[in-house]
């Protein structure tokens, strides 16, 4: 009996130490689109120019097909996909235009941190991009909250 009480106390202590870490690792809040009838998350995980163009085209077409207030579009870039959101990107104006129309672009900070570790220089990304700690975690959060994942 004493062992189980000690085990419970140790478990509670461990949870109290881990809980703040889990809370700080949470992703950014969901978009505030109360009238959205459709919720789409587009995954971008490679740096291929054709894939980048396709993701931007899909987002643009969704905005044209639906009233921008009735659709929530979020593009999550991680791994080599963050190239689209770097400050020197050739498609920066397209990205910023979509952001102005309500599309949210998430950039994975784990990827940014990895690049900084490997190169010694932190890549600069478009200030309007939303930093998330874990890109795939953000996709999971969105999927759990009614977003449909599309990987063009």
From TrEMBL:
<keyword id="KW-0732">Signal</keyword>
<feature type="signal peptide">
    <location>
        <begin position="1"/>
        <end position="25"/>
    </location>
</feature>
<dbReference type="InterPro" id="IPR027396">
    <property type="entry name" value="DsrEFH-like"/>
</dbReference>
<protein>
    <recommendedName>
        <fullName>DsrE family protein</fullName>
    </recommendedName>
</protein>
